[in-house]
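Exercise 7. Given the encoded structure of a 315-residue chain, write a plausible sequence.
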């Protein structure tokens, strides 16, 4: 077990090393403490105690996420807080649980002193579909639900005895915790059809997933098919119904999102490279070529014509 005491600035360094890069907003007198149990590679269990603060993971941070694609599940043992992700905001009281994902920006706030237990793990360990995982984020998990009570009790006990376990036992215990979490999440996520479900529903699920995960640089045609448990060939036949291909639809949606950002004064200080990264395109020349083919002008040219905000950002 590793134990750290921290200020707001020190918490940013700890989060970057053990959890996810975030921006911390807290008062100058803010102090906190966290104890961390390592259960395996990209799998940790921690217990923290801190005062009023907010932690923010920006969309740009999410776009630069590592291949591990981490998830964080928290149980609020004491105090009150809230989480915002995917245009959802949930208030959390003692005993409630909440899931967040690294691939999308989020904000976590605490209105009181809080004690929290957190399980941080690689997304690939969670035996649920991508749509189920995303739908479960920023939703409160009822502390009175039997599955949640089992999970809370298990995590609390695991935290206490982890030092007495071998490395292999800790890893197995951590995997068991994730299986219990999957059981809890199935109670809070809407049912989704499998690959043999109604064609129109499956296609709409894919289109929605693309629009909600444009910042994900790993979202490509093959990855979209994998996340929805269909073959690439079948996915092409699905998108033929709307007169396009999966690759063309993904590119179109990314360029539409970039076009909107370039026209929005709120993003006036972002360079075009940053806007490209925010929609999942990390090569500036690729972005500029695709944008010119789609709209007949460069990103900078579009901004000059449609954004009346000075000074313009440097690109």
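Solution.
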């Amino acid at each position: 077990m590793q134990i750290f005491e921290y200020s707001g600035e020190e918490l940013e360094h700890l989060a970057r090393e053990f959890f996810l890069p975030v921006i911390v907003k807290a008062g100058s007198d803010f102090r906190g403490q966290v104890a961390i149990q390592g259960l395996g590679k990209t799998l940790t269990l921690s217990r923290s105690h801190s005062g009023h603060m907010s932690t923010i993971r920006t969309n740009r941070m999410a776009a630069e996420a590592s291949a591990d694609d981490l998830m964080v599940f928290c149980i609020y043992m004491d105090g009150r807080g809230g989480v915002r992700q995917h245009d959802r905001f949930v208030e959390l009281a003692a005993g409630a649980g909440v899931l967040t994902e690294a691939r999308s920006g989020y904000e976590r706030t605490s209105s009181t002193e809080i004690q929290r237990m957190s399980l941080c793990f690689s997304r690939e360990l969670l035996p649920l579909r991508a749509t189920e995982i995303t739908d479960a984020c920023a939703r409160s998990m009822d502390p009175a639900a039997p599955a949640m009570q089992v999970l809370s009790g298990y995590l609390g006990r695991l935290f206490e005895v982890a030092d007495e376990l071998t490395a292999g036992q800790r890893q197995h215990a951590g995997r068991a915790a994730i299986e219990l979490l999957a059981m809890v999440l199935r109670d809070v996520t809407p049912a989704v059809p499998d690959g043999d479900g109604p064609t129109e529903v499956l296609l709409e699920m894919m289109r929605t997933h693309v629009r909600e995960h444009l910042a994900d640089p790993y979202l490509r045609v093959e990855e979209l098919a994998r996340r929805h448990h269909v073959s690439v060939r079948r996915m092409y036949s699905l998108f033929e119904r709307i007169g396009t291909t999966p690759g063309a639809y993904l590119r179109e949606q990314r360029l539409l999102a970039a076009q909107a950002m370039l026209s929005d004064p709120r993003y006036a200080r972002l360079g075009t490279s940053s806007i490209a990264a925010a929609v999942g395109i990390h090569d500036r020349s690729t972005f500029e070529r695709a944008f010119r083919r789609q709209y007949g002008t460069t990103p900078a040219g579009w901004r000059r014509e449609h954004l009346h905000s000075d000074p313009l950002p440097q690109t």
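Remark. The first strand starts at residue 2 and ends at 6. Students should compare their own answers with the one above.
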